[in-house]
Amino acid sequence: MTPPPGVPAEERLIAKFHPQARHLFWPALVLIAVAGATGYFSGNLPEPVASWAKDWMLWAAAGAIVLLLVVVPFCTWLARRITITTRRVIVRDGVGARRSREMSHTRGYEIAVRRGPMQRLWGSGTIQLSNGVDPPMQLRNVPNVALVQETLADQIEVGQILAHRDAQAAQNPYTA
Fold first, then answer.
1. Same structural domain for residues 106 and 167?
2. Residue 127 sits in which domain range?
3. Each residue of 46-71: pLDDT tens digit?
4. Who has the most CB within 10 Å: 53, 82, 92, 151?
5. Which three-class secondary structure state does DSSP give residue 135?
């Protein structure tokens, strides 16, 4: 389904995903431990302070721990998104201030995949895209890294074929 020469190709979404969620293992473990400890110690603490005050302090401490060690890492993970379209790769991240980086398929780039032992265990990896001009773009902890690498390579090829075809059509408008 390629458009006719000279007509711009419509940008379509291929994939949109977050990095591998394995880094959320420790926040999940903290959440379970805090919930269990809060349930156990609620109404069960020693008596130097009034019972309502110690329960209030326990719940406040549990809330602070959950906020810092569970909610913040989850929001940080959720704020990073990788989008692959038929024209470009887009990486958006940032909780407060948003940052966005793009790399076009038609320009072409080198794809390098690096997988550590834990990434191999979980089926993820780090993809580095380098076009030789801009600083390299790193996609860290990409789930199903082999499929994403293959998709990016296919999109580079298709983008360059369409760009070459359109350049040929622009040079000689009488051939169709």
1. yes
2. 95-171
3. 776 556 677 888 899 999 999 999 99
4. 82
5. coil
User: Residue 112 — φ and ψ, nearest 5°?
Assistant: -120, 130
Instruction: Classify residue 16: in a domain, yes or no.
Output: no
Residue reference for tokens 């020469």: 5
Q: Which two tokens stand for residue 25?
A: 């293992």
What integer best gives the mean pLDDT of the chain? 88
Return d(Cα 128, Cα 110) in angstroms, integer: 8
Tokens of 38: 């809060």
User: The sheet that has 81-85: what strands, in order across it?
Assistant: 13-17, 81-85, 88-93, 99-104
* Domain match, 65 and 100 both: no
Any domain includes 86? no
Same domain, 122 and 65: no
DSSP 8-state class, residue 174: T
66 and 114 housed in the same domain? no
Angle between helices 72-79 and 25-41 (to 10 degrees): 150
Beta bridge partners, 170, equal: none
Q: Which of 166, 159, 147, 161 is nearest to 88 (CA)?
A: 159
Give the predicted TM-score (pTM) of the model.
Answer: 0.80
The two three-digit tokens of residue 44, written as one number: 């069960």
Contact (Cβ atoms closer than 8 angstroms) between residue 112 and residue 126: no
